[in-house]
Amino acid sequence: QAKVLRILQEQRFSRVGGTEMLDVDVRVIAATNKDLELEIAQGRFREDLYYRLNVIPFRVPALRERPGDVPMLAREFMGEFCAEAGVKPKKLTARAMRELQSHSWPGNVRELRNLMERLVIMTAGPSIDLPDLPESVRTGSGAGSEAPSLEEARRAFERDYLTARLAAHGWNISRTAEAIGIARESLSRKIKSYGIEVDKG
Fold it and tell me: What pLDDT is stored for residue 18 in this prediction?
């Protein structure tokens, strides 16, 4: 923080390992998801740096505060991942979209983006309906006593993902491993670990 403050104040810096001072003329855009006033009070952020950066502040509301943005963002992300996967564009049904808009999105826009990627990978048809959404989205916050642990959720997603990718590549382990970017031996171990039945027919 001290080095950043010095650059902002003096508009000069030296490269790592160098001795020559270089002049800079830049505008800085800084973003955070932290409460910086609280961070200052707890001694984790410099007050002088805060005031140097906080010239024209903007607050971007969390996604849960702007549900009207969810359809636009969902369609944008869906189109992006369909194009990457080389599949025809998929559409969310009206009731699936309503459920997305009512979700609290604790992971903000990144959570929505990751969900759209998952839905493109995991759903076979051209439309995505309410049953295709993960339970954590369909039941609101997903924080109830029956909610799986993070590790359980991760393993469930990985198992479903690997099964879908294997099916997409004709259950050929070598081609699937190459497509998803892991070693064939690693994929074989995961198949055994998750008890995935490879269709050899």
Answer: 80
Assigned CATH class of 64-147: mainly alpha
Question: Using CA atoms, how far apart are residues 170 and 165, in angstroms rounded to an integer?
Answer: 9
Q: Is the pLDDT of residue 155 over 90?
A: no
**Quick one: pLDDT at residue 194?**
77
- Domain edges within the chain: 2-53, 64-147, 148-201
172: CB partners within 8 A, 6+ apart: 166
Answer for the pair 105, 65: CB distance below 8 angstroms, yes or no: no
Identify the CATH assignment for 148-201 out of 2.60.120.380, 1.10.10.60, 1.10.238.10, 3.90.1150.10.
1.10.10.60
pLDDT digits (tens, 9 = 90+) for 115-148: 999 999 888 788 899 888 988 888 654 444 345 5
What is the greatest pairwise CA distance in the chain?
A: 70
Does the pTM surpass 0.85? The reply is no
Copy the structure tokens of residue 66.
């702007």
Share of the chain above pLDDT 70, in %: 93
